[in-house]
Amino acid sequence: xxxxxxxxxxxxxxxxxxxxxxxxxxxxxxxxxxxxxxxxxxxxxxxxxxxxxxxxxxxxxxxxxxxxxxxxxxxxxxxxxxxxxxxxxxxxxxxxxxxxxxxxxxxxxxxxxxxxxxxxxxxxxxxxxxxxxxxxxxxxxxxxxxxxxxxxxxxxxxxxxxxxxxxxxxxxxxxxxxxxxxxxxxxxxxxxxxxxxxxxxxxxxxxxxxxxxxxxxxxxxxxxxxxxxxxxxxxxxxxxxxxxxxxxxxxxxxxxxxxxxxxxxxxxxxxxxxxxxxxxxxxxxxxxxxxxxxxxxxxxxxxxxxxxxxxxxxxxxxxxxxxxxxxxxxxxxxxxxxxxxxxxxxxxxxxxxxxxxxxxxxxxxxxxxxxxxxxxxxxxxxxxxxxxxxxxxxxxxxxxxxxxxxxxxxxxxxxxxxxxxxxxxxxxxxxxxxxxxxxxxxxxxxxxxxxxxxxxxx
Length: 458
Prior knowledge:
Distance between the termini: 18 Å
Strand order of the largest sheet: 15-12-14-13-17-18-16
CATH architecture of the largest domain: 2-Layer Sandwich
CATH class of the largest domain: Alpha Beta
Radius of gyration: 22 Å
Largest sheet: 7 strands, antiparallel
Strand content: 15-25%
Helix content: 25-40%
Number of domains: 4
Number of helices: 16
Number of strands: 18
CATH topology of the largest domain: Uridine Diphospho-n-acetylenolpyruvylglucosamine Reductase, domain 3
Structural class: alpha+beta
Shape: globular
């Protein structure tokens, strides 16, 4: 950032909104994925006008700006060596419409808080990333996030009706309408979902909401002695047309770490499935238990209380923290494969882990083919460091070869730009990436919005 720019922005927005002290800059230097860039300044917006004025100023001077909600990105999407724009103070819930089934919120609203407020009205916002306790609406929309309930309800992209966006030149536009049907114009809403702050800054969102189902939900866990048995159980659940609200996979490494972190004593096997099943007809749970036992589950148990069910959910939500506690470093992968290839995928991960002698812990969304490999390693061990990149590239290459994707929900950021180009070229054709670059140029001709990420223009 050019000399004196911070003072000019302070004059433009008011005192207290431009932060440059070392402690603050350090706080905003790293995301949850461990990607690091030190910003030159942090601007804390208090309203849409602040965002508009800042972008107009920065666009005229070609100063890069990167939006920040809670810093929960795992791919480096929110780190920058220029200006970080903190949107966390835009945290109003503007309207909960229980007739038209939508909620209108500002970008800084934390997802867990949103669902607490919706629950008072008998509604919920179904997508639920594991980071729901800190992540913000603007962040989950910009990332196109997924979550634990997505096996039944889909990802964030399925629940966004309209967005208020500040464009690169500071102008404000609204894409879409809070209507169940709207065919007026191109679908610019979905263009912004998952755009990672490279096309505009999302400041408000109109999100679909759903009534909380008035059905009994059973939380079931099953322990297996092999990944393949757990994978085959997933396939049979699908074939038998059971659609769980949640279907998560843990391996022994993650379970042991979680037991240690939480002081619990969950049974340890090669794999565990954690499943929420809704009782509509009265036989869903019994059918599920039969499937699990047919596929060699060693232990099958239904949570006996709300406290036990919540404990199991918290173990899932904090799994990455538990893994951090047992490993000096890790790379969290986000490949997603067709569900009918889930057993092949699990087998391949075992093969790659053994080939390179690196621990790969598998934890994630088994119900939609998005089980996350966490590659654990010692950064002081040259052999392990050398092998990590090879492990990751083999996983990515394999997932795309069998019709999967390099990222199911974490996004591209800094981590996967090269892999994005590879996938688009092999699956969609080279012209698709070029069209994306043209769109970026159209929305952001001076390349100030989160430059050097996603679709790199440099």
